Amino acid sequence: MADEALFLLLHNEMVAGLYRAAEQGEGENGRCTTKLESMGFRVGQGLIERFTKDTARFKDELDIMKFICKDFWTTVFKKQIDNLRTNHQGIYVLQDNKFRLLTQMSAGKQYLEHAPKYLAFTCGLIRGGLSNLGIKSIVTAEVSSMPACKYFSMYSIT
Amino acid sequence: VVVSIICSPPQNYPLYIRSVPTENELKFHYTVHTSLDVVDEKISAMGKALVDQRELYLGLLYPTEDYKVYGYVTNSKVKFVMVVDSSNTALRDNEIRSMFRKLHNSYTDIMCNPFYNPGDRIQSRAFDTMVNSMMMQVC
């Protein structure tokens, strides 16, 4: 399907373009990652507004996380999150065993050190979506073996 | 006479407010502001009672002698409040619901506009046109 490839290519160019245009030392001190994450944040806010327009009201945070794992992920990446775990105290782990943005890169340990750049946008996407639904959180990601990756969402219950 | 206002949580300040006719506007602003409390009450009541009705439309908030107030809350906690003249009995529930749907759709379009910062006042011509046509329809 052509539309999947469009976003994949655009995303790759975004990462490459940002790092190319970065000033001295910006790549190392994480400014580029922050820029990518903020882009994802704003996009996530708009997307979640559109997706939750017709759904019923959410009961609690678990409901919201399930929505992100199923409907949101399916609409954006054409598949669901494979595994959702929580410690019921504000930490959620979303595991995707075949992350769409990483499948074209490698199928093991090759290019592992470059993977975090490509996860920053999606971290922002999740954070933006959650923030518009009323949950202030911090989202980080970790890759141990391509193309599987895990997203950690941490927020405080007040 | 219709006034619509959209407030953003948790600061509860208006993103957009418009009323027809324009005299006595302050009274409508005040009514809308006080009805925000009723909206909050309804949302928290819903959560505890485990009501089956998980709709976004809240219905008639409270009637006063001159006008009725309707509320609607989106999943992103943005509240829409509409004040309608009581003498306008031709307005049925379905019409109010469809008006709120239109407001919600236009608000979603504004959110997706990359030049709009969430939290700013709404200054979109498309939104103004939509609200105007809605109010003309009612009066």
From TrEMBL, chain A:
Chief subcellular location: endoplasmic reticulum
Pfam families on file: TRAPP
Claim: Cell wall biogenesis/degradation is one of the keywords in the record: no
CDD domains: TRAPPC6A_Trs33
Cell compartment(s), UniProt: Endoplasmic reticulum; Golgi apparatus, cis-Golgi network
The UniProt record lists the keyword Disulfide bond: no
UniProt keyword list: Endoplasmic reticulum, Golgi apparatus, Neurogenesis
Gene Ontology CC annotations of this record: cis-Golgi network; endoplasmic reticulum; trans-Golgi network; TRAPP complex
InterPro entries: NO_sig/Golgi_transp_ligand-bd, TRAPP_component, TRAPPC6/Trs33
Stretches assigned to coiled coil: none
Record GO biological process: endoplasmic reticulum to Golgi vesicle-mediated transport; nervous system development
Gene3D superfamilies per the UniProt record, alphabetical: Trafficking protein particle complex subunit 3 (3.30.1380.20)
Family label: Belongs to the TRAPP small subunits family. BET3 subfamily.
Entry function: Component of a transport protein particle (TRAPP) complex that may function in specific stages of inter-organelle traffic. Specifically involved in the early development of neural circuitry, likely by controlling the frequency and amplitude of intracellular calcium transients implicated in the regulation of neuron differentiation and survival.
Protein name, UniProt field: Trafficking protein particle complex subunit 6B
Organism: Lophotis ruficrista
Gene: Trappc6b
From TrEMBL, chain B:
Gene3D superfamilies, per database record: 3.30.450.70
Keyword Hydrolase among UniProt keywords: no
InterPro entries from the UniProt entry: Longin-like_dom_sf (IPR011012), Sedlin (IPR006722), TRAPPC2L (IPR044760)
GO biological process, one term: endoplasmic reticulum to Golgi vesicle-mediated transport
Compartments reported by the entry: Cytoplasm, Perinuclear region; Endoplasmic reticulum; Golgi apparatus
Source organism, top-level taxon: Eukaryota
Gene Ontology cellular component list: endoplasmic reticulum; Golgi apparatus; perinuclear region of cytoplasm
Keywords, sorted A to Z: Cytoplasm, Endoplasmic reticulum, ER-Golgi transport, Golgi apparatus, Transport
Matching CDD domains: TRAPPC2L (cd14854)
Pfam families from the UniProt entry: Sedlin_N (PF04628)
Stored PANTHER family: TRAFFICKING PROTEIN PARTICLE COMPLEX SUBUNIT 2
Family: Belongs to the TRAPP small subunits family. Sedlin subfamily.
Protein name: Trafficking protein particle complex subunit 2-like protein
Gene responsible for this protein: Trappc2l
